[in-house]
Amino acid sequence: MLTNERYAGDVLSRKTCTLDFRTHKTVVNRGHKPQYYIEDHHEGIVSKEDYERVQEILGDNKSEFNRGDYEKTPFTSRVICTHCGKNFHRFGKNLEQTMWRCSSNKKSELLCEADPIEEAQMENLLKEGFEKRYNINQRTNDGLLIKQLTKELSNAEAVREREQNLLRVELEKCLIAENKAILQNLDTEDLKEKRQEIEKEIAVKSKLWEDFDRDYEFREASLNRLKELKGSDKAINKILDISFMRAWVIHIKVESPFLFSIKWIDGKETVVGKFKGGYHDGRK
């Protein structure tokens, strides 16, 4: 292999081994003995010039790969495959159409059969979900909607804290009741079951709370954009882009390239798109 950090003719001190005479086993020197590095200790399998040229090529390819595949966007780490639970990753930035693909499927179609999705399709479905959530149409009073959106984002962190604290209080009550029952030699099965249910709910919501906390910048940016509108009539469509709507999104579950389930910051979900052959709500 030509991908090692150092030329094959060098001696890597971290690979140095010693023999433990008590156990008669070879022990890797991980720093417990003096270590040395000797450059050009012996002749490598390939010349040093060829090795260095290969490293340059690999470095160029890696840089291009990172630029094309790992650029962060508002969708990064928020689009989840329903089939395998892995994230969708962005690729093809320099092609005509930017696509998103399940990370498992990208490794092998045997791991996941999820189809890739056009980024434009993801944007359209998110906008459809946002409009559906707030019933946005031609008759929408933009002034009232802006007030509602502003209030939601302003109160979002307080709502999240309240939910977390309530569950913690419930868990503490269950633990006190369970410990009291144990001391009194009473049956604790029902109390234990209730406590485990709350623990499971906290475990599930902890990941959502973490994702929520990471999105502080999105919420702040969207709040500032709402304030700039100053209650203008028919102004909401001017800011309905992905970065703005992202402030309300916890994650997007992909059923298919045409059907999404969007979980919002208040825990509610909106299904958008259609099944193959018809809309998700039965329409044709």
Summarize the structure.
The chain has 284 residues and is α+β, with helices and mostly antiparallel strands. The chain contains seven helices and ten strands. The strands form three sheets. The protein has a five-stranded mixed sheet with strand order 3-7-8-9-10.
What are its keywords?
single chain; 284 residues; alpha+beta; three-stranded antiparallel β-sheet; 15% strand; extended; disordered N terminus; disordered C terminus
Model description:
Helix 4 (142-183) packs antiparallel against helix 5 (189-214) and helix 4 (142-183) runs antiparallel to helix 6 (216-229). Among the domains are: 1-51, no CATH class; 140-250, no CATH class. Strands 3-7-8-9-10 form a 5-stranded mixed beta sheet. The protein has a 3-stranded antiparallel beta sheet with strand order 4-5-6. The chain has a two-stranded antiparallel sheet with strand order 1-2. Helices cover 45% and strands 15% of the residues. By secondary structure, the chain is α+β, with helices and mostly antiparallel strands. The chain is built from 7 helices and 10 strands. Strand 9 (269-275) and strand 10 form a beta hairpin.
Q: What is the global morphology?
A: extended
User: How would you sum up the major sheet?
Assistant: 5 strands, mixed
Intertermini distance:
56 Å
Question: Rounded to an integer, what's the Rg over CA atoms?
Answer: 28 Å
Strand order of the largest sheet: 3-7-8-9-10
Order of helical and strand elements: EEHEEEHEHHHHHEEEE
Structural class: alpha+beta
What is the tally of beta strands? 10
